[in-house]
Design a protein that fits this description.
This protein has 129 residues and is mainly alpha-helical. It has six helices and no strands.
């Protein structure tokens, strides 16, 4: 089945699976996600390793998918570039970046988690349909 999928569809499916799982985790244990951001901000080694991993993942996604040819391709390319930028921010300005993320993400974590699940499910469907 996967041999017939394009890179755009594969990335959409993988990103969609990640988002659905992360959204469910956010809804089921809202306190642990906020605590995780605090720990990531305070632990220098964990912050560096996470930043390096996210930067490498973003760079790989941009390298294989910098396509702007259709709606799904644009969404995946934006996510790829955002991942790369997020990795750079985690390495260069980790504390302020995570404080901003915490302020945005967890004030209304139930609606945010539901939105992440819905967007992830849409990407998963678009990738596998």
């Amino acid at each position: 089945m996967t041999e017939a999928l394009t890179v755009t569809q594969l990335l959409a499916a993988f990103i969609g699976m990640y988002m659905v799982a992360a959204g469910i985790g956010l809804l089921s244990d809202q306190n642990s996600y906020a605590k995780m951001l605090d720990e990531l901000r305070e632990n220098t080694a964990l912050g560096f390793l996470t930043g390096a991993f996210v930067l490498a993942l973003g760079a790989a996604m941009v390298a294989v998918h910098n396509l702007w040819t259709g709606p799904l391709a644009v969404v995946i390319s934006v996510i790829a570039w955002w991942t790369l930028i997020k990795g750079i921010c985690l390495l260069a300005i980790r504390r302020p970046f995570l404080e901003l993320a915490n302020a945005i993400s967890f004030k209304n974590s139930a609606p945010f988690g539901a939105a992440v699940i819905l967007f992830g499910a849409a990407l998963l469907y678009a990738g596998l349909a």
